[in-house]
């Protein structure tokens, strides 16, 4: 799995093959991979589900803050923290997301819906300024995904500070 994740993260989906994964894993042939996975699609689906489960668990464990503003900050910090510890996993996840046959449970939609609801709560509590929560959720998630895609060239401590600051400025939080 780790060789598959690293290969997808480095080469992207289209260039990833059993041969490339076997080479990264130090295997002399692709036989061990094809023993466990019928084809590339099955492997991609397993990688996708694995990363998604670990990511969701990691972020969820850091939520439950007392206010919408604190919850939004915790969400952003948890996303960057997971990225800091699992950059290749997140990069592979984003690169294969469109190709995974297994459903992600509508994670993109559920992330958006949950984030928009949190932003509405913050507005109702007077913690955030007036804005369209659905649009703001799109912007916040796009910034998060941008950090993932560019994270190899960025200082993640600086990135975390700037991401949190940008969102706080944008939300008036």
From TrEMBL:
<dbReference type="Pfam" id="PF00440">
    <property type="entry name" value="TetR_N"/>
</dbReference>
<dbReference type="Pfam" id="PF17932">
    <property type="entry name" value="TetR_C_24"/>
</dbReference>
<keyword id="KW-0804">Transcription</keyword>
<dbReference type="InterPro" id="IPR001647">
    <property type="entry name" value="HTH_TetR"/>
</dbReference>
<feature type="domain" description="HTH-type transcriptional repressor KstR2 C-terminal">
    <location>
        <begin position="67"/>
        <end position="147"/>
    </location>
</feature>
<feature type="domain" description="HTH tetR-type">
    <location>
        <begin position="2"/>
        <end position="45"/>
    </location>
</feature>
<dbReference type="InterPro" id="IPR009057">
    <property type="entry name" value="Homeodomain-like_sf"/>
</dbReference>
<dbReference type="GO" id="GO:0000976">
    <property type="term" value="F:transcription cis-regulatory region binding"/>
</dbReference>
<dbReference type="InterPro" id="IPR036271">
    <property type="entry name" value="Tet_transcr_reg_TetR-rel_C_sf"/>
</dbReference>
<dbReference type="InterPro" id="IPR041490">
    <property type="entry name" value="KstR2_TetR_C"/>
</dbReference>
<protein>
    <submittedName>
        <fullName>Transcriptional regulator, TetR family</fullName>
    </submittedName>
</protein>
<dbReference type="GO" id="GO:0003700">
    <property type="term" value="F:DNA-binding transcription factor activity"/>
</dbReference>
<keyword id="KW-0238">DNA-binding</keyword>
<keyword id="KW-0805">Transcription regulation</keyword>
<dbReference type="InterPro" id="IPR050109">
    <property type="entry name" value="HTH-type_TetR-like_transc_reg"/>
</dbReference>
């Amino acid at each position: 799995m780790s060789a598959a994740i690293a290969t997808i993260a480095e080469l992207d989906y289209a260039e990833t093959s059993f041969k490339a994964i076997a080479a990264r894993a130090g295997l002399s042939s692709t036989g061990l991979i094809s023993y466990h996975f019928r084809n590339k699609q099955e492997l991609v689906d397993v990688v996708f589900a694995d990363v998604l489960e670990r990511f969701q668990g990691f972020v969820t464990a850091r939520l439950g803050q007392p206010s919408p503003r604190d919850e939004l900050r915790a969400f952003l910090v948890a996303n960057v923290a997971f990225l800091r510890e699992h950059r290749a996993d997140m990069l592979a996840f984003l690169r294969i997301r469109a190709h995974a046959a297994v459903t992600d449970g509508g994670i993109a939609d559920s992330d958006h819906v949950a984030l928009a609801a949190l932003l509405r709560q913050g507005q109702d509590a007077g913690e955030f300024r007036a804005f369209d929560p659905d649009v703001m959720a799109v912007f916040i998630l796009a910034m998060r995904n941008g950090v993932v895609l560019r994270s190899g060239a960025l200082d993640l401590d600086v990135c975390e500070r700037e991401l949190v600051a940008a969102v706080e400025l944008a939300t008036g939080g």
